[in-house]
Amino acid sequence: MILVAGATGVLGQAVCRRLVERGGTIFGMVREASDPAAVAVLEAMGVTPVEAELADRESLAEACSGCDAVVSSITAMGRQDDADAIERVDRDGQIALVGAAADEGVERFVYISYSGAIGKDDPLTLAKRAVERTLKHSGMTWTVLRPSYFMESWLGTPPGTNTASGTLIIYGDGTKPISWISLEDVAEFAAAAVDSEEARNATLELGGPEALSPLEAAAVIERVTGRRMLVEHVSEQALRAELAAARSARERSFAALKLAYLRGNAIPMDDMAERFGVELTPLTAWAAGAREDAA
Asked: How far is Cα 215 from Cα 238, in angstroms, rounded to an integer?
C-alpha cells in the first residue's frame, strides 16, 4: 500500500496515475478543504482518498498506518493568500508527515524537492533542505528527488511562456542552459523510486533530455507551434529589487527562484534515465502538446 501526499495537486495526480498503472493499493492524502472535483479525479483513477491535515499528527498517523511507502509532493507555493504557508506546510507539515510515517513503520519515503542548484537561503529552499535532512535521519529508506525547472510551470504559464498568447518572459539575458523537465517525467521517477534499489537512500538530481537556454527554448516553441514569441526580459537588477521588496515568504522564495534561473541548471541525464527506464520528454514534444491544447 502506498500513500501519495499532495494527491490533489497536478504533480500528485500524475504520481497517482503512474502508481495505479503499476498496480497495488494507492491512497491519496486529501484535506477537508480539498476541491471535490480533484478528489473525484483520484477516485475515478482508482485511488482511495484518505483525509488528513499536516497540523494534526493523529490524522497523519492514521493516513500512514499500514502503508509500505509514502510519496510526498506537498507544497504551499500556490497559496497566495496564506503568508505563513511555506513554514507551516513545506517545512513543519512535511517534517510532521515524515515523523508520522517513521512512527507507523513505513519502509520507504519518496520526497519530491527541487534541484540543489535552485535557491539558497530563501524560505522555500530552507524548508526543503530541512525536510531532506530530517528524512535522511528518519530511519526509513528514503529517496529525495531534485528536479530542475518544470516545463509546465516555467514555459507554460506565467512566469514563463504562454504559448496561446505568444509571450515569453526571460529572466536575465536568457543564455544560460537549463535542463527543463516535464512534470510527467518527475512523476515517473517518483513512481519508480518506490521500489527501486537505484533510488535507495539516494538524492537524485533530475532534468530533461537536453539543456537549452531560455532563448533556445523560445526558438523551439516558435518552430513547433508556428507562433512568433514576444520576448520580454527581466533584468537581474529588477529581480534583486523584487527580492528586496518582497513582503512574504512566498514572494521572497519566488524571487529567489527567478534569480537562480539566471545561473542556469544543466543536468546530465542520459545515464539516469536509462537506469530508471524513464523516456524523458523533449521540449519539442511538450511544445507540440501545448500547441494542441491551445488549438
From this structure: 19
- The whole-angstrom distance between residue 252's C-alpha and the CA centroid of its chain comes to 18
0.70 exceeded by pTM: yes
194-236, pLDDT tens digit by residue? 999 999 999 999 999 999 999 999 999 889 988 787 888 999 9
Question: pLDDT, tens digit, for every residue of 6-52?
Answer: 999 999 999 999 999 999 899 999 998 888 999 999 999 999 999 99
Sign of CA dihedral 257, 10, 101, 277: negative
- Which 3 state secondary structure label does DSSP give 172? coil
- Give residues with Cβ within 8 angstroms of 199, minimum separation 6: 110, 143, 192, 193, 276
Contacts of 111 (CB under 8 A, 6+ apart): 72, 94, 98, 131, 132, 135, 142, 143, 144, 145
What's the grid cell of residue 57? Answer: 499528527
CATH number at residue 254: 3.40.50.720
* CA–CA gap between residue 46 and residue 26 (Å, rounded): 8
Per the structure block, which three cell numbers stand in for 60? 497523519
Which residues are 27's β-sheet partners? 3, 48
**Domain coverage including residue 103:** 2-294
Which band of pLDDT confidence, cut at 50, 70 and 90, is reported for residue 183? very high
Length of the chain: 295
